[in-house]
Description:
Layout: H1 2-6, H2 33-36, H3 40-52, H4 64-70, E1 75-76, H5 82-87, H6 98-121, H7 129-153, E2 157-158, E3 172-173, H8 175-192, H9 207-220, H10 224-236, E4 262-266, H11 288-292, E5 303-304, H12 306-313, H13 324-329, E6 330-331, H14 335-338, E7 345-346, E8 349-350, E9 364-366, E10 386-390, H15 391-404, H16 409-422, H17 440-455, H18 461-467, H19 474-481, H20 502-506
Antiparallel strand pairs: 1-5, 2-3, 4-10, 5-9, 6-9, 7-8
Amino acid sequence: MKKIYALFITTMLFLSACNADLLDIDNPNEATTETFWKTEADAQAGINACYSALYKEGTWMRWLSFRYDLTSDEGLSTSPWIELANWTHFNYTNYNFYEGNNIHWEHFYMAIYRTNQVLKFVPEIDFDATKKEQILAQAHFMRALWYFQINLLWEKAPIITEPTDAGYVPVESSEEQIWEQIESDLTTAANVLPESWDAANLGRATKGAAKALLAKAYMQQHKYTQAKTELEWLISKEGSLYGLIDNWVNNFTHLDENNIEGVFEIQFDDTNKGGTGNNASMATGFQRTQFYAPNGIGWADGKARRWVVDEFLKEKRADGKNDTRLYYSVLYRDYLKDFPDGDEMYYSVNTNTGWDEKGWGNDCYIRKYGTSYYRDREDYFAPNNYRIIRYADVLLSYAECIIETGGTTAQAAEYVDKIRVRAGLNKLSESTYASSLSSKDAFLKRLQMERALELCFEGWRWADLKRWGLLDSEAGLNELRSRDEDFNNFVLGKHNRLPIPQIEIDNSEGGLTQNPKY
């Protein structure tokens, strides 16, 4: 599938924005909309182009992690690029800051445009009906994936379901309307997509991926009953389609990709080492690792909050040792004291002798998804797949749905315990946190921390904080401030969403309005 993602179409996906007759000349070397959508191969190239949108800096490839990891309470940025760092500190002055705002809007809608072309033109092509339905279902899934991010970031935006040209004038849709579109797309996708693909197509969206994302959409709206139903399908496939792998860290390396724990993964690869333009030689590597690695290895723009380390260290495993998820998630000064069997070498640095030499001080660095296990330094071309949804997340989400729909803490703990036992910890009922089973509220508060420990720096913390209402009250903000001083800058009713890019408002002819308090 990694090779398939690179086989995409570029200029033929875009309609001409110019009406001048002089410029209305077809390039014989490039397909146009009118000449392209004719064959099954064209349909396949079209859906591959939808996946290739994942190889853009505005997605999880690079900048989206700054919003989801570093703006949440689990991370921070001390980047010397002041505007970049400020964007994670809720200090927004330039609403057109490209890397923090406009790039997401641009790349998401570019991706949506590609899905809309598939949904518009593929039905008109004559080929095998089952293959056609599966291509269309994949486009529905990918469109929903992007609208999901739009709702998390801005909470309102245009809903576009047809290919548009330069004359398009946006019409604003509400958060609720966007959720409805997401639900519709994912329901359509889940009804058609296969449970799995053959080896040549690993990485394409599956029925389980659609149901898991649909469950997440329901959960963000507190529709826990509907979410629970979708998750039950994945739970029923445990042991066949889905499960937890024994070696937890391989969820973040390139050594065991597309395994039973990966529900949906971005298929990154380091084969192409060029730019991220729209051509067959575009880079398809995971770039976040370059920005999170320590100084001298990467840029150190993204770091972990110390509370994450301290929270891991509060509980020993059943064998009396520290939780190795900490070792593989965060690098910090005393990690070899806590993990005496750990490797003193981190990339090319001996952490016993070189820590202070590198000026790392008391900083905590995000280790998850790093590539120190096989090379000496980072670059923009890491080969690790990014797991957008893991089965571990499904289990923890299911536990949340159980307790939110009237189930008992014991019933919900069964699914949390699967995660804990895999990590070598005791079951909740036999642990330091046994009191969390005493009530719904106590269990939910513990579940919030269990999610943080298992899923830190995997891009879901911001959505979690929004869902749990921690961004909606002074009490919630005080909890976050106790872990992350950046939340002292947070303004209620404002910073739970980004400002709409000002250029989009200026060009909308009144169709878009700015978010409240901006």
